[in-house]
Structures are given as C-alpha cells and as structure tokens.
Amino acid sequence: MWTPRRILLLCLGWTLILGFYLGYGFVLGSIDGLPPLPKGLMPHSREHLPPLPARPASRVVSKLQLAFGPDCPEVGRQIKIEIGSKKMVFAADQFQPEPDGRVSLKPMSVAIFSSDKSNPRLTEISTIRGQVAYIKFDRPVAQLSDIGNRKIVAAEISGSIEVTNNRRTQGRDDDLSVFIPTGPLHYADARKLIWTTDSVHLLDNQSKPKPIDVRGRGLEIELASEMNQPPQPGQPKKPKGDAVAGVKRVKLVEAVDMHLHVREDSGFLGQSQNQQKPTAASATAKPAPEQQAYIRIKTPGSFEYFFRSEKEGNLAVFSLPEP
Questions:
Q1: I want to staple 317 with a disulfide (CB 3.0 to 4.6 A). Which of 115, 262, 277, 304 is the partner?
Q2: Which CATH superfamily is domain 59-225+243-270+291-319 in?
Q3: With contact defined as beta carbons under 8 Å apart, do 262 and 235 qualify?
Q4: Tens digit of pLDDT for each residue in 99-114?
Q5: In angstroms, rounded to a whole number, what is the distance separating the alpha carbons of residues 253 and 152?
Q6: What does the angle CA 9 – CA 11 – CA 17 come to, to the nearest 5 degrees?
Q7: Whole-prediction pTM value?
Q8: Where do the domains of the chain lie?
Q9: What are the angstrom distances between the C-alpha of 136 and each of 102, 131, 140, 142, 287?
C-alpha cells in the first residue's frame, strides 16, 4: 500500500539516481573513446562528392562500338538487338510491322561478325547503314522481342547507304567502303547476295597514301556461307542461323571508272604478299620516298573481284558489255 512515506522515498531515490547520472555525464561524458573518422569518410556536400564509376557497356553496345567506333550514334539508338546466333547486331530508332509481313527500321545500322576459326582474334566485320530498311523474316514478327529468334530471308535498304568491311584488322584506316546515294540495296539469304542497280562509289583505303577510287553503276556482293561441321556423338545439333563467313565476290555491273595508285612491288588492289623484311642496315638508313604510279581504268563493261585463299591469290576480271 502506497503511503506518503513510501512515495517520498521513491521520489528521493529517483532524484539521487538522476543526479548521479547527470554528474557522470557532465564529468566523463565528453571523453570520446572511439578513433576519429578518416578524412574520406567525413560528411561532404553534394558538390564535393566523387563521380560515380561508369557503368560497363552491355554486350550489344560493345559490339556496336567495335563495328562503328566508340562514339558512334548507334550507341544512343532506342533499339539495339542481336540476332543470328549473336553474329549480327541491329540498331534503329523506329520499329514498325508492315501489312505485307515485313518489318521497317528507321534509321537502320547492322553489323555482321565473322570469326576465323584458325585465329579467333581475326574477326571480319561488315557494316551497313541506311535511312530505312524493310526486312523479311522466316516467321511473322508482331513485336520487337520476336526479332531475336528469327532468321532474315530478305531485306531492302534505301537512302544514303554505306557498306564497310574491316579486312579482319583492328585499324579503321584500311577499310573497304562502298557508298550508294539512294538505293535500294537488296539482300536475299537464299542466294547469299547483296545487290543494287544504283550508282556506286567504292574506296579501298588499304592503298597508301591515296586510296583506290572506283565508281560504277550496279553492284553485286556475294557472301561466303559458313559451313557448319557435324556435331560430335552425344552432342546436340547446333541451330541453323545467319552464318556468313565473309565476302566471296564483288562486282560492279557497268560503267566502271577506276583510279589506282600503286607501287612497283605491290599487287593489284592490295599490297604484295612477298615483301622482304628490312635488314639492320636498311632499317637505320633514311627511307626513300615511295614511288607510286597512277593508273586509270575505264570501261563500259563490268569489273569483278574474287576473294580467294592466300595460296590461290585474289582475282580481278574486267569484262566488256554484252552486245
């Protein structure tokens, strides 16, 4: 039972406890036993915060940068997707299914990758750019996500078309480039053929210091198919994809006008494969200026260039127009 005496003793006890606590805090509370924070962990204002590390690029973006350059506009496109067993990359801003079953992409950029099985580091990259592309797949496409597991059977590209090939080298100063002002540029997977009837401007930057300049009307690019080896016993069969091993043949159909700047020891449309290595004496001597000959070949007929093995050597053929 609470009595006045017990209530007084309780209040006196709490007063003594509170007094002892306040006295302890006043005398010893200012002593900090923890080590001071490092300068890097001290509070900072937002203006003095270090920048966040850059996010690593995705695989698709890395492939686009490898094909078109690190600062290419394709990196900022709204649509970036891989198809064809990850050997083909698309980039575009607009996607629209057409009534005839095709798909339109605006503007369109595509990169095709082909690795050398004997040396995987030597990757051949072919790129195509255009203002608009109409693509037909092996199965209907209703939405963008369907493209990833489809195969291209035909395509049509129009408007400021640019086609490049890197010659299986990392540098961009020896690329083979083809410019088509209007188009359209067609592709048929069954024939592995790219062609157009528009005027064509070809630059072969492998020739130094001046590139080989070729102009004509009509273009055919035949692609080499990648032969799939049969699977080993017990292994699943690899799915069939858009397997392209590189360029097999390039043909300018008519009205060919070719400007060549070649050295005496160089081959046609490329450097000599049998160049001698410089000796120690010649390496220290001042190199003599290269003598180049200017050659112009103009024909109303066609020009055809075959990419063959190193043993056979590439082959160039000029033909007269049919009567």
A1: 304
A2: Lipopolysaccharide (LPS) transport protein A like domain (2.60.450.10)
A3: no
A4: 888 999 999 999 988 8
A5: 26
A6: 100
A7: 0.70
A8: 59-225+243-270+291-319
A9: 5, 17, 8, 12, 55
